[in-house]
Structures are given as structure tokens and as C-alpha cells.
Specification:
Two copies of one chain form a homodimer. Chain A is built from ten helices and seven strands. Chain A is of the alpha/beta class. A seven-stranded mixed beta sheet of chain A has the order 3-2-1-4-5-7-6, with helices on both faces. In chain A, helix 1 packs parallel to helix 2 and helix 5 packs across helix 9. Chain A starts with 10 loop residues before the first helix and ends with a helix. Chains A and B meet through strand 5, helix 6, strand 6 and strand 7 of A and strand 5, helix 6, strand 6 and strand 7 of B.
């Protein structure tokens, strides 16, 4: 697994991830609740932006949250402590080399992680192996190709494309959201159901203009400015024009659209030969 | 108003519009119902694909459906007769030159029409003038820039771009959906609320693969093949490659996404000075 994280690990990025979680909690996680007594693996918890939401929404479930980055885990632990949650256990571990027995979890949750992996199919297959029969696997991913806005702007699309290119260079795929369904089916999950979660932002929704368009999306693109210029993907001038045009879409007559994809599938409850014969 | 209709007026196109309406009825019209006794203007009814749905869902409302094309109106009349509906009256008329008294309708409905007009803002302002105080105006439009799919394909995007270019040449805008909010606010409507209606299609939804991706969207793009080649926008080979790649997205591991935008706004109920002062 590639350890490069296109967004970086700075404090501003941690704040962005927490802002993002705040704005999108209901849209993305409103329908995720795990029953009392269930053991849930959160694979790739990062700084804990989703961990806090998950653990709070399912207080009776026991979460095991893993990440490859010790620094991210430390931040996640602090976030969980700050939220006074005691149903999360953290482990530093790689999704492709999990230190758990197979079929040892009731559910698996993976959010904004597959997009950063060079082998998302392999990762999903391994995560599926962690599930007990009948357990669910939940995947949430964005898709930068779902971004469009008014006024339209080639410069803004080019700035977004810098992020897509850098993420691809690091072995990831910023357009992964649309592939959640085939990836989950390919990993052998059953009853896969994918639903798009579109964030539509116009001036009648000032909270989303601020928390999503500005503080989540534009902040994310702005975050690759230096890497993109250093990599020769753009110039200071062109990148600034793109950011300016993205900001233009946050004005009173502007519109901004982005879509996340959430998939839920389950492992087959193995039927016994005697039963199938019956 | 331009009278060129980018999709043409052939029988196959009429069938496509009816298939489209069938597939999308709930998604687009499920929340549109007009009260008994209300008088509703449907502006640009075309072949009646929406008229039948509207009139059936609001049996107590009286619809006045207009279109500039006599041929389309005749088809719409047949569709309404076939559905045994008696609450629709047809008039051949131009949105920019309406033969009705101002403030003579309780509600106005306009669907897949603004995208074909060179002055959508002017059309909306005129339609707003038809409304009694407190009446609602409903707008539904697609946006071809909201189209993305898996596997991704530059050839498929180029084929879609042919449709966008032809529509622009005819004075329209195939990317209008994202502008519904600013257009409605600009036309002086109040309490404008726009909601995206995203059509997400994967193999777990075979009805949509057939009725939407194949029979609505790909059929629409396929419909501009000859005009696009004649206009020098593409070649037979490149266009065919684009259609082939769009079809590729209808296979078991394919995904297709498209978004419509629905806006509802109302005219102000003029407040009397005595009341504001109270």
C-alpha cells in the first residue's frame, strides 16, 4: 500500500477533515448505525473525523479503528477522548496486512480510503475476509469527476485536475466514487446497494456554501497548490485563477455540485449442503 | 424564440420522450400535485410526455398546455386523449408572446424547455407574469455536464459534447440545470428551492439501465449523429466509438450518472401598507 497521502498531514488538513465531517455527517452517515454488541472494524480511520461520528451513533458497538499513520492515530485518539467516547480501540495497521483473525468482525466500515490505494480491489477483498458470514461492509467515497458549478470555468476544472493527477501519481484514484458498485461486487460481496449522496449548494444554503464549498472542497484543492506547481502541473497564475473561479461559485448567483457514493454489501451466510438439498 | 429543436420531431424522438417520462416520473414529478380548482399553465408541453403525468396526478386542476409546434401539440392531444384525461386544454403559442392575461394562472410548470431557449431569463420573467400573487412556478431541467460513467471514456464525453454544441448553436444550453436557482431568483421569484434529482444507474437497477441509460440518454445522443457529422463536429468513426463506450457503461460492471434539477419558487403575495405598519 502506498503511504503517500495526497492531502498531507498538516494541522490545517486535520481541521479540514473535521470541518468536512461536521458538514456531511447526516448526508453520509445518517443511515449507518450498528447494533449493540457488534464488533466493527473501521479501516483507515485517519485523524478520526468519521470515528467520532460512528462511535457516537452506535454507542453499543465496539469499534476497532486502524490506520497506517501513527500521527493520524494519535490525532484520532485525541478526537475520541475529547468526545468522551469509550467504545473505540486503535491499532496501527495496514489494510493489506491486517493483524486480526479472519471472520472476526460483524461489520466493516471504510470511508475516503480506497481512493488513496493502488489496489482498492485487493483491499476490499481483504476487508471482506474480516467479516463473519452475514456481516456488512460499508464503503464511502467521493468522485472529483462529479464536480461542476456555475459559472462554469475551465481554469477551475484545471485546478481540480491537478488534485486528480497528483492523487493518481501517488497510486490513488480521485474518481473512484463511481466505481464503488463494481468494486464491491468484484470483491464478492452480495446484495450490494450503492446510493449517491449529492451535495448541492446554492445561496439558499449558506451553511453548505461555507462548510462544504469553501472549507471542504476549495480548501482541499487549495491544499495541493504547492505540490501541483512543484510537479509542473500548473503555474501560480493558472492555479490562482482556478481557485478564484471556484470561489466565484460561492457567490449569491453561484452553484456548486459534488457527489459521494455510499455502498453497503454483505457476505453470504454459507448455506449447509443438507439445507440446500432439503 | 428559436424554433429549432435540437432533438428533432421524428417518431422515434416522440417515443424516446415518452420512455423518458415513464422512467423518471416518480423521481421528477412525485412531489408535484396541484390542488383542486387551480388553473395551471404548462409552458412548452411538446408531445405531452409530461402533460399526461401532470394531468393524471392532479385530476382536480385545469391545465392549459402550450407549445409552438403544431405537430407536437397534435401528438400531445393524442397522448392526453389516449390517457382519457379531460382536464387539459391546448393552445399553440410562444412562451415569449403568451395569449393570456397577466396574473391569470395559479401555477406555472415548465420542464425541459428553458434549455432550448436563447433567453431563458426573459422566458421565466414572462412566465412569472402569468402567475397570481402567491402562485408557484416549477422548473425542471437536465444538465449534460452532470454526466459521468464507468468505465470513463473521452470518446463518450466527446459524443455528448456534440449534443451540447448543437444545442448551443440552436440558441440553447444543455448545461442549464445547474443554473435553475440563479435564473429563478433573477426572474424575481421568492422562496426558490432547487433540489437535484440524480439518476444513478448500476447493474442492480436493470430497469434504469434499459429505460434511462439506453432508451433515454444514449438514444438522445445517438439522435444527433447525423447533424453532428454534417456539422463537422465529429466523424462517423469517432461518434460510433463514443456511443460504443456509452453502451459499455450499461454492462454488469458499468455505472452511469445524470442529474436533473427541479426548482420551485413563488410570487410574492403583495403586503398591504396598513398590514406592514401594524
Amino acid at each position: 500500500m502506498r503511504r503517500d497521502y495526497v492531502h498531507g498531514h498538516h494541522r490545517r488538513e486535520r481541521q479540514r477533515l473535521h470541518d468536512q465531517a461536521g458538514a456531511l455527517v447526516d448526508l453520509l452517515h445518517g443511515d449507518t448505525k450498528y447494533p449493540k454488541g457488534s464488533r466493527v472494524l473501521e479501516a483507515g480511520c485517519g485523524v478520526g473525523a468519521q470515528t467520532v461520528t460512528l462511535a457516537r451513533r452506535s454507542p453499543g458497538a465496539a469499534f476497532v479503528s486502524i490506520d497506517v499513520s501513527a500521527a493520524s492515530l494519535a490525532a484520532a485518539r485525541r478526537a475520541v477522548d475529547l468526545a468522551r467516547l469509550d467504545n473505540v480501540e486503535f491499532h496501527q495497521a495496514d489494510i493489506l496486512d491486517l493483524p486480526f483473525a479472519s471472520a472476526s468482525f460483524d461489520h466493516v466500515f471504510v470511508c475516503f480510503v480506497l481512493e488513496h490505494l493502488s489496489d482498492p480491489a485487493g483491499a476490499l477483498a481483504r476487508l471482506r475476509g474480516m467479516l463473519k458470514p452475514g456481516g456488512t461492509l460499508t464503503v464511502i467515497e467521493g468522485d472529483h469527476g462529479s464536480t461542476y458549478f456555475h459559472p462554469d470555468s475551465a481554469a477551475a476544472h484545471a485546478a481540480i485536475q491537478c488534485q486528480v493527477a497528483l492523487q493518481a501519481e501517488a497510486g490513488g484514484n480521485a474518481l473512484l466514487g463511481r466505481q464503488v458498485y463494481p468494486l464491491m461486487v468484484g470483491a464478492g460481496l452480495e446484495d450490494v446497494r450503492v446510493s449517491p449522496r449529492m451535495v448541492y449548494v446554492d445561496a439558499s444554503r449558506p451553511d453548505l456554501v461555507d462548510s462544504f464549498t469553501k472549507k471542504t472542497f476549495i480548501a482541499m484543492i487549495e491544499g495541493v497548490r504547492h505540490s501541483a506547481i512543484a510537479a509542473g502541473l500548473t503555474t501560480t497564475r493558472r492555479f490562482s485563477a482556478g481557485i478564484r473561479d471556484l470561489r466565484r461559485a460561492t457567490r449569491a448567483d453561484g452553484v456548486f455540485c459534488y457527489t459521494f457514493f455510499k455502498g453497503v454489501g454483505r457476505t453470504v451466510v454459507s448455506s449447509r449442503p443438507s439445507r440446500s438439498a432439503a
